[in-house]
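Please go through this protein, sequence plus structure tokens, and consider how the sequence yields the tokens. Keep your notes short.
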Amino acid sequence: MRIAVIDLGTNTFHLLIAEVNTTTFEILYKTNVPVKLGEGRINDNVIIPAAFERGVNCLKNFQNTIAEYNVDRVRATATSAVRSAGNGNDFVKAVKEATGISIETISGDEEAELIYQGVKLSGAIQELSLIMDIGGGSVEFILCNAEQLIWKKSYNIGAARLMQQFFKSDPLSDEDKQAILFRIQEQLTDLFEICEKYKPQILIGSAGAFETFAELLTRKHNEAIDIAQIKTYLFNYDDYIEIALRLINSTHQQRVEMPGIIPLRVDMIVIASLITNYVLGRCKINRLTLSTYDLKMGVLASQI
């Protein structure tokens, strides 16, 4: 059976097509498009007209690809930008009319569950771990081990939200930095309580920004690793901290010139670095690994 998975993120729309057997799968096609659905007014809970149009047009293209591959089943999930937008349902209806694709708007809890299933599929979970998925609209945390999900929660502190609200300087000023960190601290109280109780020893970063961190470090060390082709990547902790601090203190133009950062993430990587550093420090974790498998792989796993 051929299955297409569409993940409508706040920043990026993903399409994955796989040939699925009883217990295995083969990825036939995958792509992602920087639609920026949350552009401009995500904190006002509005999808602006230009972003609305980009989203519909992207899904028209996805539908053409799905038809070319003779897909048997399509599952499309929308996350923070659509679920929080006052015109999110209008977007879902417009896509259905234009493409025939039915979009399922999932809750933050469902999103965290699917992220866990995706990361589990990568083999990254070997011990008591804290998974972190930094999206544009929300950030999901999952406390788990290889056998079970222990605790999960989604928070509306995604990189696009924080950037639109607080990122007013270049390079990021101490004042803006403190405002961002205050918001993170204010939101994540129960996360820090649960981590104090369970004491996870490793943070698993789910795709996205963590792929950018890995890309920057593999290039720095001239490692012949294609991040797009691997399931996991273990960071040298000191290397990660060094690159994160460099990103936080750099100008927009300096980040543009860093090989390994895609245009969409040039500014949001600063927010991702701040959140990751703060969580590592507060949870007393000094090990970090990447899982390139994320929500869309969790959706695929749910279809097998």
Notes: The CA atoms of residues 53 and 278 lie 36 Å apart.
